[in-house]
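From the methods appendix. Each design record in this collection lists the tokenized structure first, followed by the designed amino acid sequence. Records were kept in a plain field format so they could be parsed without special tools. The example shown here is representative of the layout used throughout.

RECORD:
FOLD TOKENS (292 positions):
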């Protein structure tokens, strides 16, 4: 997630993290580890009937670092696997600031992920363009770097397009979307790509990057994520649906308030169903206590 210096300073001041007291201490010591499973019915325009009920597991923004431990990541992996999704997608930012100390540990922690239709990943703004995708590939993740792959699911064609964080221009994305299947899913780390996806008629976009704001204050909201069209959860523009995950880790400020980490399980529904349900619950196991 990209935040301004001013937003970080405001967050520090608001949470009292400088003194590690009150809500700031709770957000540091406890809340950032209290992983939830978010289950959501996601309406998709022109969804083939055979794909209704398809379950997509979405995990993003691990930010493995001194503040986000191996236990945090493996707990998220085990929690997502317990939901048995049909396909798993990873939304980028596996480490923070391309920290090579954590590239291999982050990727290795993802090795247990598996799904009948595969495990796919994209790169975020904190990921380098070589070491991180290579480490992911060695651990069973097919990385889509401005690339498209075609799947055959329940007799239907599904095109999965993954773009790097730095791929932003509509003309660049259009090259990938051209001649794609009617059922196309765009994996874009930054939810601001909703604009381009809607213009190109992409039915579904899955994103992260915002951390849901990470610190969400009463009456104020998510200070560090106000510039995004969707901060967390489902939304739409025209006939394009987007889901933005709050992610697993933290960045810059190792605190979460009113914004728990999550793994998301998205069940695809036809827009004709008229249903849009989102349920949140704590993960099955107790969150890890390790912070290193």
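DESIGN:
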């Amino acid at each position: 997630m990209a935040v301004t210096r001013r937003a970080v300073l405001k967050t520090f001041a608001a949470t009292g993290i400088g003194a590690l007291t009150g809500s700031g201490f709770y957000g540091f010591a406890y809340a950032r580890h209290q992983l939830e499973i978010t289950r959501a019915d996601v309406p998709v325009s022109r969804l083939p009937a055979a794909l209704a009920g398809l379950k997509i597991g979405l995990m993003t923004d691990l930010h493995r670092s001194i503040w986000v431990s191996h236990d945090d990541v493996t707990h998220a992996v085990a929690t997502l696997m317990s939901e048995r999704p049909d396909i798993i997608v990873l939304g980028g930012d596996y480490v923070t600031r391309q920290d090579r100390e954590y590239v291999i540990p982050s990727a290795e922690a993802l090795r247990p992920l598996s799904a009948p239709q595969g495990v796919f990943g994209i790169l975020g703004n904190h990921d380098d363009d070589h070491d991180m995708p290579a480490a992911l590939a060695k651990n069973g993740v097919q990385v889509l770097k401005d690339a498209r792959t075609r799947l055959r699911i329940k007799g239907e064609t599904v095109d999965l397009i993954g773009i790097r964080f730095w791929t932003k221009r509509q003309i660049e994305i259009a090259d990938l979307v051209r001649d794609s299947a009617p059922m196309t899913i765009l994996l874009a780390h930054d939810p601001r790509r909703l604009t381009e996806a809607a213009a190109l008629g992409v039915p579904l976009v899955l994103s992260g990057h915002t951390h849901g704001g990470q610190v969400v204050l009463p009456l104020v909201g998510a200070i560090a994520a106000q510039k995004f069209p969707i901060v967390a959860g489902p939304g739409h523009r025209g006939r394009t649906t987007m889901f933005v995950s709050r992610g697993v880790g933290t960045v810059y400020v190792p605190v979460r308030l009113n914004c728990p980490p999550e793994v998301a399980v998205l069940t695809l529904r036809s827009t004709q169903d008229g249903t849009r349900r989102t349920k949140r619950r704590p993960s099955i196991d107790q969150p890890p206590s390790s912070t290193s």
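APPENDIX NOTE: The helical segments are 5-15, 22-29, 70-81, 103-109, 131-138, 170-177, 194-200.
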